[in-house]
Amino acid sequence: MHIYFSGIGGAGIGPLALIAKQAGYDVSGSDAHDSSYIDYLKKKGISDIHIGQTEAGIAQVQANMPIDWFVYSSALPKTNPNHPELLFCRKRGIKATKRDEFLNQILADKDLKLIAVAGTHGKTTTTAMVVWLFKQMGRPVSYSVGAKTSFSDMGAYEADSEYFVYEADEYDRNFLSFKPRLSLITGIDWDHPDIYPSRDDYYQAFRDFINQSQHTFIWRADAQKLGLSEGQNVTLIDDNDPAIATIRLAGDVNRRDGWLASQIGSEVGQPAGDLAKFVSTFPGLSRRFEQIAPNVYSDYAHTPPKIRGALQLAKEVAGDRVVIIYEGLHNTRQHFIKDELANLFDEVKQLYIVPSYLAREDESLELLIPEKLLDLLSNQSKRHAEAAQLDDNLAKVIRQHANAGNLVLCLSAGGAGSLDEWLRRQFSNLKA
Length: 432
Known about the structure:
By secondary structure, the chain is α/β, with parallel strands linked by helices. The chain is 40% helix and 19% strand.
């Protein structure tokens, strides 16, 4: 079967393409831009990749080998409903779906049991931790993780694996396409108002997901939000369980994610306490409190709960010497969270606000430039905050703070043109 992946360089589509190749499918694809990850995919044997997503490009692929299935991301039809590749496939009756339907095909073809990690925050870290646990146990596993790690690819298929570990994203209700053997819920806080107009819409999606899972582990506080009680198919984890402290990782969020990941022991026949020892050696992953240079870190935290978790971790490491560079993810989200932004950064040493990373925006909303976001802050935050741009002056400021022994935490959306990308260019010559 020939599978064509549109947006093959993306964090969701790319790993799935690699999984498909390793699982024996014929794979090709395209992306709007070249990248190091596309070079990586080519080295892994996916050579038929076109840069520039045009009708002529996909037509040439179709002429060389008929396409059986066109796989695309949720963003594609939203950002461009007349995308030339999508129209090409529709005109010719080529099957075209989002990635979740194709992943279900792999699960069925290979008879894999799905361990799904879902939640508003902590999904990627917890998913990577579960993969780490399988590797420490010496058990083969297939998986897809939405970030780079030092110990694995972002996605992989192993022929003798029994389980597939998956980061199940709630955006566009993608996670409702699956019926997991085991689900881990990392935390629930209303997000994606463009998909879920109300808090209860968001909560109901998680109720549906849990109902579709054979068994679910969820924190007691989150279960209370959903009106769930412990039962045959749901296990509640005490938010103050002393066992959380047995996870020897920095940061409350990491310790909680580690204890949640350890709950797979019930499925694989290992005590959670034993797995906690393994997860305590977890080496971390990219863009989650990732050190870019001495005293300079990048983190993907972009919702208030994620930001609070990143701040707690930074303060655990550096005390009152925490400096924040803040890049909001989406102007739409800044409107959604502006009331919570007011006090988020009250306790940091210094705050610099740079322009938000724009994508999938509600054009009817006012653009909240750094100066406007600054106006939304509490008086306490305003005393140590200022607007900034990604320029030489900001690079100089970051170096001055780092050299003075402050911890500079850059909260960035990542992607082309982002604070994270700029930061790596500026500090690439320094070793962390």
